[in-house]
């Protein structure tokens, strides 16, 4: 990363050079520069921004697919319905709790694993490969695996192990909880933590491996303990990577649909915002209210996105500008 | 106090050796811990593979039957041995959507990244953040209009609709990654080549391509994995014709009868392309996941 050149300097030298040929040559040069960018930019605006404008418009309309005759301007009624809808409020709370828990737990586990993997030991490559496996299982497949092969109350692995352990002590009455109905949200969170810990670990490991080893070596020679090295050298260096991992993780986890859809179908208080919008739109056929929900989801994500963009932007400045 | 001093003395005589011993022991303990953690995280996957190789009746036992005889019946079921439903159409749909969108992503992202790094346009950072901000916009926010547009344009249940949507999903990541790679192209050499009279094509092929090639590989890998895994768009916008492998997988669970081995076999088969690609390119994975910020 230190080999990156400095685009700001280039930009200045470029504008200095660009200034000389005179005003007439500038527009053509500018378009030649912009040309390669335009297809991607236009594509993104058309495919991502226009639909959102559509959502915004529909959110102010009375529009239920089951009642096509009654379509028209509805003012704020969809928003009023959305906010007075207790399921939306609980979906917001669920989304916040789910995202915060999954990101924090997997970040802490990921940090621990990255620190373990940062040292040399026999079979490090194999352990690393085993650790990233959960991230490479297709999310729906992993949700199905947790639901049927692990959490199932009659033949899941967890209850199976309980039976086995109890039978070791000669008891035939092992507790057999139905995990998905006893602790639904924790079950969803556990499967997501399993899936996202490798992501955090990979980014943090890359951060650990990019720190200057001579400084650590010098600190050790000066008698710094492992904890001091971690607290005063490693951790400050890792801070930006922790932020990056947490924010990218939040962006993905806040949008999670697969796990909620597969594990609990949004039941028992596990419906998060994406699932709630899907349900309103797909099962309720109320297009107006689904759109209002969608706009609320965007408003909530903007909150995270603002922090995320600020962090990435500071990272970006330090690294490349 | 005196006792500890007495015990401590031999160590103090040869402090270096004692310290080395302790460090060695610590190191092997931590290595052991790392192995343990690796195994814990690997266990659910291993269990999935093992269950997929059991017969339905020995897959659904309590306590689990570890030593049951292995069979490929689950995999035969996945390929439609009894139901006659072939998994190939959804697998081919997934391949079309993933490869198609990956190619489109590269075609759009590489020129854009060129315009953002090698000969940057004015306010190129703003453009970069525009791309990134679209990634923060939740997929569900635009789902309904997309559904309605697709419905009126006759593109519902059409795999090319997914190709377009997956492209928009991965393009911001790809632009960010490719820019960070192209920013490493040595400017001095490009200027020298220009002075020597090298044309654009020669410059691209001889100077830009060698630096950009690993970046293109990393970008393609990430775009492929995310497209292959996607469920929400596919679930809402496709049906029987264009359904992708993840959608097919959700339909595999039935309310009656035993299906555990079959589902596990299907899950293994559908995860296989991503597992192979991911294992083969572990270092690329890190670059991609961090948008090229980490190399």
TrEMBL record, chain A:
Membrane topology per record: Multi-pass membrane protein
InterPro entries: MetI-like, MetI-like_sf
Transmembrane segments: 37-61, 91-117, 129-146, 182-206, 295-316
Gene3D superfamilies per record: MetI-like
Compositionally biased intervals (Polar residues): 1-15
Keyword presence, Nuclease: no
Disordered: region residues: 1-28
Key words of the record: Cell membrane, Membrane, Transmembrane, Transmembrane helix, Transport
Pfam families, sorted: BPD_transp_1 (PF00528)
Biased composition (Low complexity): 16-28
Chief place of localization: membrane
Keyword set includes Transcription: no
Domain of life: Bacteria
Localization in the cell: Cell membrane
Domain ABC transmembrane type-1: 92-308
Residue runs in coiled coils: none
Protein name: Carbohydrate ABC transporter permease
Organism this protein belongs to: Streptacidiphilus cavernicola
Automatic annotation (TrEMBL), chain B:
Keywords assigned: Cell membrane, Membrane, Transmembrane, Transmembrane helix, Transport
Top-level lineage group: Bacteria
Cell compartments where the protein resides: Cell membrane
Topology versus the membrane: Multi-pass membrane protein
Transmembrane segments: 29-50, 95-116, 128-147, 159-178, 207-226, 232-252, 259-281
Region (Disordered): 1-20
Pfam family of the protein (one): BPD_transp_1
Composition-biased stretches (Low complexity): 1-15
Residue span, ABC transmembrane type-1 domain: 91-281
Family: Belongs to the binding-protein-dependent transport system permease family.
Name used for this protein in its record: Carbohydrate ABC transporter permease
Species assigned in the record: Streptacidiphilus cavernicola
